[in-house]
Amino acid sequence: MIRTSIQAEGLITNADYESDTRASSCSTVLVRMDTKTGQIDFTTHCANSNFSWRQRVNLLEWKTLPEEELEKIKTFQEAKAQFPEIKNMDIEVSCNCPHALYSGSLFNLNVLDADDTTLPRYTNAPAPEVRPPDKNDKERNHILCKHMISVIRNFLLK
User: Fold this and answer.
1) Interior angle at CA 17, CA 87 and CA 43, nearest 5
2) pLDDT for 65-116, tens place per residue?
3) SS3 of residue 93 by DSSP
4) What is the DSSP letter of 78?
5) Residue 72: how many other CB atoms lie within 10 Å
6) How many domains, in total, are found in the chain?
């Protein structure tokens, strides 16, 4: 999981151009939302791939919302209608695609600019990623994969 210290819009702002451009070829489907925990699961398929990948978003401030109101929520659409502040919540995100793992985002978010609170933080790993992505991301600009960008654009920010 990548835990962010900023909202979804800030993640998109920090996303690299190539991933952001490729995200337009992806279609994302909401699989389920756990309305008790604020955990949302998605599946994304992109035009240039034979695979579908799974994404998860945890709304970190979900449990701070009024409990009596949360009990009434059954779907993500209801949650967004009832609580428009969802798009401004701090989030944790993950994707099981190889690009998310091998492109350098885990290193970039852990090692580079460690004191920069405008970047998302990767916090729920057994150990931080310390291998620099010298081959896959020499410029150290990869933050999110195209699948997570698709999730954020099509669900969290709409």
Assistant:
1) 50
2) 998 988 899 999 999 999 998 888 888 888 888 887 778 777 776 654 454 5
3) strand
4) H
5) 11
6) 1
CB atoms within 10 A of CB 18: 12
Q: The whole model's pTM is what?
A: 0.81
The tokens for 13 are: 């702002």
Instruction: Give the DSSP H/E element, type plus range, for residue 12.
Output: helix 8-14
> CB count, 10 Å around CB of 25?
13
Distance CA(94)–CA(145), nearest Å, equals: 9
Distances (CA, A) of 58 to 9, 72, 104, 112: 15, 19, 22, 24
> And the tokens for 146?
């195209």
Q: How far apart are CA 29 and CA 114, in angstroms?
A: 33
Parent domain of 84: 2-156
Q: Which residue has the tokens 């852990």?
A: 110
Contact 76, 40 (CB under 8 A): yes
